[in-house]
Amino acid sequence: MKIYGSEVIESSSCPDSEADSQQPGLHKLLHSLRVRVHDSIFVVDKALLTQNCEYFRALFQSGMRECQQEEIHLRCLGALGFVVMLQVLDGEHPMLSSDQIVEAIECAAFLQVQALTKHLINIVNSENCLLMYHTAATYGVWELSHSSALFIRDMYSDLQEDVHTLPSELVEYIESLIPSTYMAVCSHSPSTELLQDFQRTVCYLDEENKEWKVLTHLPISTSTTMAGVAVLNNKLYIIGGVHDVSKKVIDTGFCYNPAGNTWSTIPSPQQLRYNFTLIGHEGCLYAIGGEYNKKAMSSVERYRVSNGSWSFASHLPCPAASLASAKAMSRIFICLWKGKGATDIHEYVPEKDQWLLVTTLIRHQSYGLCMVAHKDNLYVMRNGPCDDFLLCVMDCYNLSSCQWTAMPGQYGNSKGSLFTAVVRGDSVFTLNRMVTTEYTIEDYKWKTKREMEGFGKIGSMYTFLMRLPNASVPSMGMSAALTQDQNLGDLVDSRRLSMQCFEKL
Fold first, then answer.
1. Which helix (H) or strand (E) holds 152?
2. Other Cβ atoms closer than 10 A to 6
3. Statement to judge: residues 88 and 8 lie in one domain
4. Which of 109, 114, 367, 475 has the greatest count of CB atoms below 10 A from its CB?
5. Nearest CA to 121 among 157, 154, 96?
6. Adjacent-strand bridge partners of 354
């Protein structure tokens, strides 16, 4: 028999007895529930189950006899999945084996635990995506099945042979989705109607022809110089930026929707800023740090797309500008330079509005210039010990083992600068003026997979991924119209599309 929980109730105990009333922790026991899953018993806080599991919430509110029982027997679940659920509800981020994945999906479906479904989505990778997709479709966990299908679509060429072992309906759904496209935009100042700069473009990589093409032109009043650039819900956001060397800040934000090939405006943060980090996460944009009047700031603001308003969040531990950042398993991480060869990695936890110190990298010349994530790994790119500033070295931090590993070799120069790296599936895309390089990520080495045309423009570059409907890719000469519509539909309604596909199964 396995017991989960800090308190254990023996089968012969009686909480109403006078002796038990003197025991420490009795109050907690009175609000606990024994849950039997096959031969395992778990002692769980009732409030935890009520808050997070639709099944238990409905049970406890039903008035049926079961809601008064001290022990509930779940006959159709596996203990592995229930353990994973409790770990997730306790704030852990476990990586899972195949058996754990199957039972966790079963648990998420039966008990209706959104937090567990969200965790499963966050850990989809090339090793488990097919299992996640097929199992989630079988149990009707539509959000997870759709997210897994999108991941598979992005790696379709690598997974194609295995994909076709799936039922035909599942294969057809994957093939109906739009893959992610590697995108780039250079640093540009605002233009004017009379002196339009037709080089002010957002471009995409045509991987079939191995060349860069224009997707859309920037609105004339948009600046990408020292701006915050991020993608959220498949829409491109450009916030802040400066007019010129005077560093006068643009006081309007811009949003590009590829579904309609349209631009719209949004409010700027309450504190005008430039040279800051912009991150899109779960329906919100986060403007982190930056500068104003040539002074670094520690303030952070959050923009909720649902209500179109900015509000202040917890400040950074110290003022900082141009921070390297990454999202690993849908968790937000940043690099803070401490000096003397040390870089702190902090995580922002939106649910608690807290910055937490995760680890410190101590290396000679360890200033973090760029950070990307793959699975549960953070890769920090930094200056290498050489005279060529385009070359860099990497260190890998594993979030599960909490260990650093120095990556062998140096990267950059003719193979593309890693200071603008973007991860898609098991690949990393990098670029410079001469070449665009795709690397394959292996355990502790990145191997060159292919090289394509360079992004032949000067200045700082922002790179990101978006899903582009074929109809939204305009001709080279098409200019983008600026609209005031700030509520255009999302590119993909995952639940609707998934249900259309899987209702046949």
1. helix 142-154
2. 10
3. yes
4. 109
5. 96
6. 349
Is 63 in the same domain as 170? no
Percent of the chain with pLDDT over 70: 80
Find out whether 184 and 455 touch, Cβ atoms under 8 Å. Answer: yes
397 belongs to a structural domain: no
Residue-number span of the structural domain to which 92 is assigned: 1-123
Q: H-type helices in 305-437, by residue range?
A: none
Same domain assignment for residues 139 and 72: no
From residue 78, alpha-carbon distances to 10, 108, 134, 338 in Å are 22, 11, 18, 47
Instruction: Give the other-Cβ count within 10 Å of 265's Cβ.
Output: 17
Q: Is the domain of 32 the same as that of 100?
A: yes
User: Half-sphere exposure of 462 toward its Cβ, with a 13 Å CA cutoff?
Assistant: 28
pLDDT value at position 67?
61
Select from 124, 121, 91, 85 the least CA-distant residue to 103.
85
31-70 pLDDT, tens digit per residue, is 788 999 988 999 999 889 999 999 988 888 876 666 667 7
Residue 16 predicted with pLDDT over 70: no
Residues 6+ apart with CB under 8 A from 213: 203, 204, 205, 206, 473, 476
Q: Say whether both 35 and 82 belong to one domain.
A: yes
- Same domain for 93 and 118, yes or no, is yes
Report the number of distinct structural domains present in the chain: 2
Sign for the CA dihedral angle at 112, 115, 118, 120 comes to negative
Please state, in angstroms and as integers, the Cα–Cα distance from residue 342 to each residue in 89, 360, 361, 387, 420, following that order: 33, 7, 6, 21, 22
Same domain membership, residue 40 and residue 5:
yes
CA 107 – CA 121 distance, rounded (Å)? 14
CA distance 249 to 426: 38
Tell me, what amino acid is at 351?
A: E
| 334 beta partners | 325, 346
Same domain (yes/no): 98, 116: yes
Q: With the CA atoms of 150, 155, 156 and 160 taken in that order, what torsion angle do they form, in degrees rounded to the nearest 10?
A: -120
* DSSP label at residue 489: P
CATH number for position 8: 3.30.710.10
CA dihedral defined by 312, 313, 316, 320, rounded to 10 degrees? -40
Q: Give the separation between CA 250 and CA 224, rounded to whole angstroms.
A: 10
Residue 17 contacts by C-beta under 8 Å, 6 or more apart in sequence? none
